[in-house]
Sequence to fold (182 residues):
Amino acid sequence: MGTPPFDPPSERDVAIVSAQLGRPARDVIGIPARCVCGAPTVVATKPRLGNGTPFPTLYYLTHPAATAAVSTLEATQVMPELAALLEDDTVAEAYRGAHDAYLADRESIEHVEEIAGITAGGMPTRVKCLHALVGHSLSAGPGVNPIGDLALERCSWSPSRCDCQAYDVPADVGVGADGGEE
Fold:
C-alpha cells in the first residue's frame, strides 16, 4: 500500500502495467499497490498527462484478475446496493473523508485547476466506478474508503493471493505464469 510520495516505478513495473492494460502505460508516477508476487495491482498516474490532459484518476486498478472481479460486481448490480449505504450519515461522512484524502494525495503531487475538487468513482456523493474505489482502497489501506473496502470484501479476487498471468514483457522484466519471477 502507498500514498504519495511514491517511489518511481521501475522499467519492469511500466512494462507489466502496459501488458496489463494492453496499451502503453502513460505518465506512471508510482505503484501504490502490488500483488503478493510483486506485480503492480494499482498504478498512480500524474494529475496532468504529458499531453496536457487533466487526469483526475490518481489510483487506477490495472491487475487483470482484480479488474475482472470488480467488473463482475458492477455487472451484478452491487453499485446500487453500495450507493444506498450513503444514506447512512456515518457511511456518508466516511466516504466524504475518502474524497478529501484522495484530493490531498493528488494535490500533494500537482495542482490541476480543471480537476480541483474532483476525485474518482463518484466520490463524495455517488458510487460510480468500483474500479476506482477499490484502487483507492488498495492504495490507501483499509478504513480510508468505506465503499471501496466493502467492494473489495465482496470481490472474488483477493490481494492476499497471486492470480497473475504471464505478461507479454521481456523475460528480464516479466512475471511468470504462476506470478513468480521468470
